[in-house]
Amino acid sequence: MKWLWSDFERCLSMLNREKLMDILDVELPNLFEDDKDFNYGDYFITLDDISERVRLCSFEMRYQFHKWIKTLQYAKGYKRRMIELDREALYLNFNYTEFLESVYGVAHENICYIHGSKRDKYGSLVLGHHLEEEREYEMWIHKNRNRKRNRPNLKGKNGKYFANDKLGYLAYFLDNPKKGNWRNPIRYYAAEGAKERFEGYYHESYKDTETVIQQHEGFFRNLGGVKEITVIGHSMSDVDMAYFEKVVASIADIGQVRWRFSVYSKRDEQNVKRLVKRLNLPVAENVQTFSLQPKS
Fold first, then answer.
1. How far apart are CA 168 and CA 171, in angstroms?
2. 240 closest CA partner among 100, 69, 103, 115
3. Sign, CA torsion 175/178/181/183
4. 156 CA to centre of own chain
5. How many Å apart are CA 180 and CA 192, to the nearest integer?
6. Based on the number of CB atoms within 10 Å of its own CB, is 178 exposed (0-12), middle (13-18) or buried (19 or more)?
């Protein structure tokens, strides 16, 4: 199966909450605040350790991703695979590279680096999922509530049932925290603290397209008289749908616009049809697809 960039961004919304809670449960010492040798340092070290793993999925990932972008070079024999591009056209660039400038000679002022470019400061590139935090959270709860591990009572090795004491269950699925089998108070505070930090990850990894569009409003205002739009190498996934909708809303006479989409697979063709339907393009006959072929 071929994985696309949109698949990577979608996976950013799939942090395994239960797995992280299980790790915390294993690493959390049997601490009791009433013990004479109790040390809050042991508690915070454990909580900070699991939080660091989450941080690596957000800020650190952005840093490393930006670092990787800066290493990208022209592929060997790239000139044979170059395509014809209009240097005077306006470009909405999603891929962070500056190849439009350095390879194709397009002027910088004709390009909108909608998600940033490698010349920007580290950590500023825009990437992420586009799932609504509250809606996604409710869907996740609904999907997982009836799993065996998340039921109020579990069956022990001795065949007897006991109140579920898994931190994942206690933090996310227990209706009344006062009736939870916490075993000791420190596990309650650890679950609450970890949950707050885990949910913060979803906020940090969210692609706020509305704000991004506002930041580039000047580019979209220049699209009023556009008569042709060519889409190359874009998966047309939901995460970037707001940009297509903004393009359509910015053009004065959308019914006269000719759309051309590059396709590489049946999946791309299906995505084009879905996009045309979602954008409610008034003249479907103006939509064409084409396959890119390297220059001979």
1. 5
2. 115
3. positive
4. 39
5. 13
6. exposed
Give residue 59's Cα distance to chain centre.
Answer: 13
Q: Distance (Å, rounded) from C-alpha 195 to C-alpha 51?
A: 10
Reference 173, options 154, 156, 157, 159; nearest CA is 154
Strand pairing report for 161-163 and 287-290: unpaired
Contacts of residue 198, defined as CB under 8 A and 6 or more positions apart, other chains included, come to: 15, 17, 20, 54
Residue 116: which region, alpha, beta or left (left: phi > 0; alpha: psi -120 to 50)? left
Amino acid at 122: Y
pLDDT in tens, the chain (296 residues): 455 555 666 666 667 888 888 888 887 766 666 667 767 677 777 778 877 777 776 667 777 888 888 888 877 888 888 888 999 999 999 988 899 999 999 999 999 999 999 888 876 788 776 666 677 778 888 999 999 999 999 998 899 999 999 999 999 999 999 899 988 888 888 888 888 888 777 777 777 888 899 999 999 999 999 999 999 988 887 778 899 999 999 999 988 999 999 988 888 888 899 999 888 887 778 899 998 755 44
CB 258 within 8 A of CB 288: yes
pTM above 0.90, yes or no: no
Identity of residue 193: G
* Helix, strand, coil in percent for the chain, rounding step 5: 50, 10, 40
